[in-house]
Amino acid sequence: MTAFPDITPDIHARAPALRGRLIANQPLSDLTWFRVGGPAQVLFTPADAEDLGLLLSALEPEIPVTVIGLGSNLIVRDGGVPGVVVRLGGRAFGMVAIDGETLRVGTAVPDMRLAKAAAEAGLDGLAFFRGIPGSVGGALRMNAGAHGGETTDVLVEAHGIDRRGEARRFTHAEMGFTYRHSGAPDDVIFTHAVFRGSPGERAAIEAEMERVTAAREAAQPIRERTGGSTFKNPPGGKAWQLVDAAGCRGLTVGGAQVSEMHCNFLINRDNATAADIEGLGEEVRRRVRETSGVELHWEIKRIGLSTRTA
After folding, report:
1. Catalytic one among 150, 208, 278, 299?
2. Please, which residues have CB within 8 angstroms of residue 178's CB and are 6 or more apart in sequence?
3. So what's the pLDDT on residue 112?
4. Where are the alpha helices (DSSP H) in the chain?
5. Fewer C-beta neighbours within 10 Å, C or N terminus of the chain?
6. Are 107 and 137 in contact (CB under 8 A)?
7. Which member of 130, 229, 259, 285 is catalytic?
8. What percent of the chain is helix, strand and coil (3-state, nearest 5)?
9. DSSP letter assigned to residue 298
C-alpha cells in the first residue's frame, strides 16, 4: 500500500511544544472493530485538552482532521485517512468524577464504564449506556442510545476544542440533539461532558444493566468483527425488519456478510476489505429501497479514501 507523504516534521516545526505522540502512516485497522482499512497519514494522541488545542491551532487550514474513538461504529476505507487522525486516550480523557448527582466524564471513557460508574454511585438513568459499544465522545456526536434511553436524556453540557484550538462549551440545548445526531459544529472535538442521574438503588440499577447485557448478547453478534447497528431506524419502523424483508439476511459481498443473528449488523466474516463491507451496506440499501421504497441511512461512520495511488 502506498504511504502518505510524511507531514510530521512540518507539524513539529509549527508546534514544537507538542507533548502528545505523532505517528506517520499509522495503520488504523487494528483500532476498529471491523479490523479493516488503511492508515492515518498522521495519528495524534494528545497529552491533554491543552495539547489538543495546540495542535489544532498550529495546523494549516487545508489539513483535514478526523477524530476516532473506540472504533466500534466505524469503517476506515482501504485507501486510508488523509491529514491528522486524533485518538483521545490516557488519564486526561479517561477520567470519571462524581459530585452528587452529576458525573464529569472524559470522552475517551467507554459508555459501558460510564454506566458502571453511575451504578456504583447509586445514580439511575444511565444504565442504557451499558448496551452501547462505544465511547462518550461518540455518544455525544451521534446522540447514542439503546434500550429506551438516549444521551440527550442525561446530558447537562459538553466541552470541546474547535479547529482554531479554542475551548468551547455547549449546553444541552446547544447540542441540538435529534435521533442519532448532534447539531454541534463538525469541527469540535469533544473532550469531556457532564451528565446527571437521579438517586436510585444500586442493586436495582445493576440488575437493569444485567438485563441490558443479556438482551444484547442474545440478539446481537457481539463476538464477531462488526460495527454495531449499520443503519438508522426509519421513522416509525425498524431497519432490521426492512433488511430482512428485502431478503438480505446472510447476504455476502466478498468477505463481508449481513449477520444471520441480527440483520442490521454487518460482519467481517472472512478477511473482508473495507470496500467489501461498505459495498455490502450499499447493496442492502439498494434492495431495501427497491422492495419497500424506504431509503435507509447509514448509522456507521465511514471515513477515508476508497482507493489511493502514488
Report:
1. 299
2. 143
3. 95
4. 8-14, 49-58, 90-93, 111-120, 136-142, 172-175, 202-219, 239-245, 274-292
5. C
6. yes
7. 229
8. 30, 30, 40
9. B
Is 282 known to be catalytic?
A: no
DSSP 211-232: HHHHHHHHHS-TTSSEEEE-BP
81 and 188 in a single domain? The answer is no
217 is catalytic: no
Contact status, residue 150 vs residue 139, Cβ threshold 8 Å: no
Work out whether the CA dihedral 103, 106, 111, 116 comes out positive or negative: negative
Q: Is 229 a catalytic residue?
A: yes
Does 233 fall in a domain? yes
CB 33 within 8 A of CB 226: yes
pLDDT tens digits for 7-17? 999 999 999 99
Residues paired with 74 in a beta bridge? 301
Residue ending a domain, among 90, 124, 151, is: 90
Domain extent, residue 251, equals 223-303
